[in-house]
């Protein structure tokens, strides 16, 4: 749309050699780059978060918005129809900076505007047309344009000098060098309206007196000196162990001990002591307690390990992919599921690492003897443990503490079940009898019901979707879409159906959402689709697949089919700014 609008301007005024814009997605898109390349236009970008580098454009936008607010007050729905009139009024009015109107500077003559028409009507004045030859008209026009531009340039330079004097009164000359470490004033992740200093980042090069190329999170970007600040490193005193100890101590622990005492009964801590998962500690480190609500209504005992996780080297052990696990179950007819009892608490901590897991309780400082929830490497460690534990046993898959045994006949099922239980007993793992299911044709696994070659959502999850209430905030909309998105593979055209809900999360929209009738109809439609018990076929990897695709304006749809039916629906939401029709079919 922006490229097309610029083409209409080029058709009237000519093709420029250079244009200046900010880093909006409509300006940095592939389409915009292609248009500039084909027309030989140099596209210059203003420095990030420094709109004054394109101050004339920003000022014009502000003036036009103010004019639109006044004229569109009585007809707010038709503001776009009033835009040409507003633009003409702006172009025929002399500007304070140049003392000429934009129309005069461009065409060399005074436009006949609304005020001129009114003057003629009130005074019955008829303008006498001056007779000139074409040659004389061109000469006079050239002279008027030249004189007007000279006067406008002089006036603009005078105003710029005055503005520079006022702006530089409290300014300080600063410069940076390549490889300097700097802090950059950037918007916060959760609230774009709030800025804070982030970094340090490395200066790559200086491209002007005030602009620098800075590497921010692996990407080189141009920033103005006004939002850069030299980073001064402090000399560390003492050894690394001492500084690490200070960093991991949470200063809020003492103030929250009383609150935690109300939420966590001492009996809960004593119970964990009796179980042998924690022990008293003299560690110099400390973290806060967090209670996480589990689906069964009980609380999961967790610790706020954010400071410790920030200094932990990440474990790259891959987490099992759910779709890969489901693909192994198409030919199975008998299932058994084993749920380990507090799986994380069955993996012992290394003695040298126990002190880093210390946390405050109402009855004193404790530390973990077994792996707690909340450590950044806990999922990877548990996934590796289960992979090694079940290695060599056929027809067994695991997803954290859920172990699923699947076979085609009863005898092999008993043999595999015995091997799994023996392996668990050998290594001291315990399972929860109330959550063990042996010898079922269909079974619940990872929020789905699998069996008989089919896959469908759990009934409990479907009932939860059917009982969804109307969200009131963006956070509640995200939660709603998160639940629906987990089962999106069951709904054809899911992205298009949920588009009205997704639009509520658009950048710049208010935190308190406006729930329209379209949103209500969308939610009711989704509930209806889930109420019809959607079912997919489990993929049989030994058979041939057929992929059907379809491109829409906002998404690409794909349906994966096997001989036994549809296995999944796949959706990719796209931005119309980045893709044109020729590329959409290849995504």
UniProtKB/TrEMBL annotation:
Stretches assigned to the Integrase catalytic domain: 1-110
Source domain of life: Eukaryota
Pfam families: RVT_1 (PF00078)
GO molecular function, one term: nucleic acid binding
InterPro entries found in the cross-reference section: DNA/RNA_pol_sf, Integrase_cat-core, Retrovirus_Pol_polyprotein, Rev_trsase/Diguanyl_cyclase, RNaseH-like_sf, RNaseH_sf, RT_dom
UniProt domain Reverse transcriptase: residue ranges: 273-450
GO biological process, one term: DNA integration
PANTHER family reported for this sequence: PROTEIN CBG26694, PROTEIN NYNRIN-LIKE
Name of the protein: Polyprotein
Provenance organism: Plakobranchus ocellatus
